[in-house]
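RECORD TYPE: protein structure
NAME: Alanine racemase
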Amino acid sequence: MRPLVAEIRLDNLIHNYKLSRSRHGGRALAVVKANAYGHGAAKCAQALADVADGFAVACLEEALELREAGIKRPIVLLEGVFEASELDEVARHGLWPVVQSEEQLQMLLAARPAAPFNVWLKMDSGMHRAGFYPHDYARAYQRLADSANVGDIVKMTHFARADEPELSTTQAQIETFDAATAGLPGAVSIANSAGILSHPRARRDWGRPGIVLYGASPLPEGNHDGDGLKPVMRLATKVFSVRELPAGETIGYGGTWTSDRPTRIGLIACGYADGYPRLASTGSPVAIDGQRSRIIGRVSMDMIMVDLTDLPGAGIGSEVELWGDVVSVNEVAAAAGTISYELLCNVKRAHKRYV
Ligand SMILES: *Cc1c(COP(=O)(O)O)cnc(C)c1O
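PREDICTED:
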């Protein structure tokens, strides 16, 4: 068996959920969209089935996967529905759609559901991606509230820059939202992970933690001991070939790296086809039998070269952690010029092992 394994520590997932909910207060939707950020949506939701107040996914297809896996708690569709024909299934499975546009609102009002929909009405408080403008919000709310098709309405918005706590933009979004929802009854949900971690005024009835559930901090300083998060995924493989090179040799595609001394190179089973970022070529950290080292040369499709020169005890069979406990996914993301979310979502072909 190819030795690349993504170990998913479900106890850490439960720990991170409880931690984020207690930091936020009230209730929290466990955001398990995009296959639980690459961790496996059904397995993660099952682990949280009796713990989480509810779940959030992007779309109907993702919600149905959870219902098929036996998940009974509320599920919010963060993008809402894409066509009116989805509303039968939404009603049958008691899903809670976000309503973020006039088109979605009209679909709901025109439906003939057996039971009313609980909806999450989204405001564009400044991100300018989705949602009703503040000056249109109360009217949209009223049209929903007046419809027999609609039960509860949760008022929601989403932050553009909550991971930059020094800026005033999140505070401005909160003020816009509060002003435009004043007097409208119902629960409120505004905080994503970064909102929960660094914006106390964003903590309302429902938190929406995503990336923190998986143990990666969205904040620029990345993970630090004080945040209490525990990484859920540990992506690891093995050295399966070793070679020695004198100084002055290049390795890998493009010859982008040249040895400046006699060098021992380990070849590991992992590449960009597994989701490891190709942009994290020479320099990206790895841990070999628990000791930090680095990638050298370009990441190729199925293989990566790592530097064993200063690790004389390492060789064929040595374990290489790509990210997890010694190397944080945030470090690798930084080396690749991206964010942990993208790396985690992209993991594929690796064997998943749930513990
Ligand atoms: C994805 C998403 C979240 C979770 O975001 P994180 O940054 O992972 O916590 C919360 N709310 C909405 C609307 C989302 O789309």
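COMMENT: The two ends are 19 Å apart (CA to CA).
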